[in-house]
């Protein structure tokens, strides 16, 4: 864990050094002209995590994301794994469907079906935009807030309020060059209900880092890594059994822009569709090789007159 946290701390240090360099850069006639960072990322989600981007004002976006089963299940027979076609033909998959709309350039609102009878509503705000010139702002900053409900019948739930969870994120992004962008994602999750136990907690914290590297005009390489900082070891389930979640979440992806559509293909250490399950209830183990294929398709249309 120390090594992984050191990696994230190094990312913070690298970021701070780059920002300090921008702040101290002397102003000239060329740099005094205001320039805004554009297309820090190419989609509203990098892979599983939110990016600083949102659809343009007056646009409605439809997004479909599909997470398949594990590429290879440890302990299963080879014939079974081959028959499941690297998880693509296992019959186990999670699908995320969402609609989101931007009434302004800095505010976005959306609804989603997040797989396994789970639903979400969310808002995203853009607070600062990276720019240089007379005003120098070295990063773009946004806020993401989401409410999540699991509608699956649960006889142990005293009321429907116990089925709600919430996610709050700060999105801090910087476009270092035309090819490379980076984003830091501190997250806080609140679970309305958890089983009683000394290590069970309603408040989950995680820290993530994600990036994009532009390979060609229409192809990008993306990556994500996040670490759940608490609430994953020696927990108790509703029957009093001890279990652990897996705190590390890592994904790598390829974006293809066809002009009309943006396709995202990726491999990641989760089969869950919702950020709540990915960041606070991840059951996929990197050590056991629990990686799965996934893809996302984005399509937006203008509702302006």
Short description:
The chain has 305 residues and is mainly beta. It is built from 3 helices and 16 strands.
Q: Would you kindly provide a written description of the structure presented here, covering whatever features stand out?
A:
With 305 residues, the chain is mainly beta. It contains three helices and 16 strands. A twelve-stranded antiparallel beta barrel has the order 2-3-4-5-7-8-9-10-11-14-15-16. Strands 1-6 form a two-stranded antiparallel sheet. It has a two-stranded antiparallel sheet with strand order 12-13. Strand 8 (164-175) and strand 9 (180-191) form a beta hairpin. The longest helix is centred in the N-terminal third of the chain and has 22 residues, at 2-23. The radius of gyration is 20 Å and the shape is globular. The termini are far apart. Mean pLDDT is 88; it is low at 20-25.
Core attributes:
12-stranded antiparallel β-barrel; mainly beta; single chain; 16 strands; 3 helices; two-stranded antiparallel sheet; about 300 residues
Element layout with pairings:
Layout lengths: L1 H22 L11 E2 L22 E12 L7 H6 L10 E8 L5 E7 L4 E11 L2 E2 L7 E11 L13 E12 L4 E12 L11 E14 L2 E10 L6 E2 L5 E2 L4 E10 L4 E7 L6 H6 L11 E11 L3
Antiparallel strand pairs: 1-6, 2-3, 2-16, 3-4, 4-5, 5-7, 7-8, 8-9, 9-10, 10-11, 11-14, 12-13, 14-15, 15-16
Number of strands: 16
Rg, nearest Å = 20 Å
Gross morphology? globular
**Order of strands in the sheet with most strands:** 2-3-4-5-7-8-9-10-11-14-15-16
| Beta-strand percent range | 35-45%
The overall pLDDT average reads 88
Order of helices and strands: HEEHEEEEEEEEEEEEEHE
Assembly context of the chains: single chain
- Helix residue percentage: 10-25%
* Structural class by secondary-structure content: mainly beta
